[in-house]
Specification:
The structure is a homodimer.
Chain A (H helix, E strand, L loop, with lengths): L4 H10 L3 E4 L6 H16 L4 E4 L9 H4 L11 E5 L10 H5 L5 E4 L10 E4 L6 H12 L5 H14 L10 H13 L4 H10 L3 H13 L1 E3 L4 E6 L1 H7 L21 E7 L5 E7 L5 H6 L4 E2 L3 E6 L3 H17 L1
Parallel strand pairs in A: 1-2, 1-3, 3-4, 4-5, 7-8
Antiparallel strand pairs in A: 6-7, 8-9, 9-11, 10-11
Helix pairs in contact in A: 2-5, 2-6, 5-6, 6-7, 6-8
Chain lengths: 317, 317
């Protein structure tokens, strides 16, 4: 059942002992949403705990520093930024079919929860949570603002992508007027700072970036072997996908990352008008119009051909 | 004489045959300010022409496409985004000492014009011009909005840097609500799209990036010879300076670009708290706290040592 702010407020004010689930391969938005919501619940006297199937990457320590929360037997289950129960990872076994409230911004949300507060055109789950907190009149602490800003900034590519709503800018303006937070430092750590290893891997990218379909498609495939040679941890590859649409004529870029089990995680980016979510759906995946993904197993070159064919069809439509 | 919006409006409504001067080595903000102001003047029936000491790079064609303006004998001289007459380049000879109005956001503005509308804390000259147009009640055309957005976006690193004001976000929100402009495409061309040559040069950067002062200073020196070998045009090096503060511990980054006459143009960036404008002032240059520059001639290694010593002093203060 889809609900509005009013019902979401009523639900939140009357819930207790909340477990907040963030999606696997956690990013800035789900971590910001999880820890931001935890702060908001604390403000109204409700204890909560943030969980994730994967460890939170250390680069998000400035958000997770408040701690995931004490152990208790949950009475309420809330999922944030999770469009599909599958994305709960190992928590699907425990909480699958038991989510009381889902707060999300993915238009592809599967409506799997008892109640879903969905704003399908919001930049980020954090944008929805900020507006909900304002609606409820709950004080947003500086840490909470830091979390919610980070989610909006990371999901919008620092206000760069098409998904950046006017509201995202308005929230950033409100936060900059209200809080003495070093936003530039957050942006620097989220978008600019790299390890020397990462810089070296990016340098290798230039040689690996493969143009297909007259340059309209660019594929970048990174294998486990390459990562080992360079001493790069998997979490450092987060944020590589946008590099695939750097060349002027590229319409679709795909980052293929080999996982430890040999399966390739394929992250699609659209430079402008091609809907990559639609392409990924034909390959068993999904996502947003400009950023989507799927997973394929098999030989790397065969997968590249499969992807090329799927993109060729989309370009012809 | 520093003036406010009211006096600036009176001046603009009563001027005619305007030459708008943008600074040498033109960037998104001065081009946006120049062509945006030209649109605003056209709305109130005043003809103008935009001039620059250097050619406008082709990547800004979407702003300059309206044309620089017809030839006429100027009766009014307006400088935009120019803190110091020296930055007019070859136009200093013609218009030096004759600027009737300067519209700027550099706190270091030398107050060289008859009247100066200075908003020293604005993100961009385009932010000042947008607010002036709103104050005047002049219609902002989609092309004008495109120009002003681009100036704000480019000077703020797409809302990433410390100089991004709440007002910059509010203007972006207003524009996104009012205009059907493909902002994401502008951002893509301003921040993401690169030539293959540029990508290769960036790859070379990793090997060239030299850490000094325990990694607190990073220097990246690019010589004429390197550029020739890679077939890179000087204008493609614009935007390289932020690459110098990519590593986590870097406090100050310097991009040294050898000009054709052998002089090195040194662009400083501060990662967080060091004021690089103050450092550059000790070397005959200037700029903003987080982005400044100076020019030094001599042997490359000697210049590196001079720069290192200046940064060492600043770090110790």
């Amino acid at each position: 059942m889809f609900i509005g702010f009013s019902e979401a407020e009523t639900f939140l004010r009357n819930c207790r002992d909340v477990v907040i689930i963030t999606h696997q391969s956690p990013d800035g938005d789900c971590i910001g949403a999880g820890f931001g919501l935890k702060d908001i619940l604390a403000e109204i006297g409700i204890r909560s705990r943030v969980v994730c199937s994967d460890p939170f990457p250390t680069r998000y320590d400035f958000m997770t520093c408040t701690g995931a929360g004490e152990e208790f037997e949950p009475k309420t289950v809330i999922a944030v930024d999770i469009a599909d129960e599958k994305l709960m990872g190992r928590y699907q076994e425990i909480y699958g079919g038991k989510v009381n409230l889902c707060i999300d911004h993915h238009i592809s949300n599967k409506n799997y929860a008892e109640r879903t507060l969905l704003r399908g055109h919001a930049t980020a789950a954090c944008e929805v949570i900020y507006d909900l907190a304002k609606y409820m009149g709950v004080t947003i602490t500086p840490h909470c603002a830091t979390c919610l800003y980070t989610g909006i900034a990371t999901d919008s590519g620092c206000f760069k992508y098409d998904c950046t709503t006017p509201r995202a800018h308005e929230i950033a303006a409100e936060m900059k007027r209200c809080y003495d937070i070093n936003f530039a430092r957050i942006n620097r750590y989220m978008f600019d700072v790299k390890s020397l290893g990462r810089l070296k891997l990016e340098a290798k990218v230039v040689e690996l970036l493969e143009e297909r379909l007259d340059g309209k498609l660019a594929i970048l495939a990174v294998t486990q072997e390459m990562m080992e040679q360079l001493g790069i941890a998997m979490e450092e590859l987060e944020g590589f996908a946008p590099l695939t649409i750097q060349l002027e004529n590229t319409e679709v870029g795909i980052l293929m990352r080999e996982r430890e089990d040999g399966v390739f995680k394929c992250s699609f980016r659209s430079a402008d008008s091609i809907n990559v979510s639609a392409i990924c759906q034909t390959l068993g995946g999904g996502g947003h119009a400009k950023a989507a993904g799927c997973q394929l197993s098999g030989d790397m070159e065969t997968i590249k051909d499969t992807l090329t064919e799927a993109v060729r069809k989309a370009l012809e439509e």
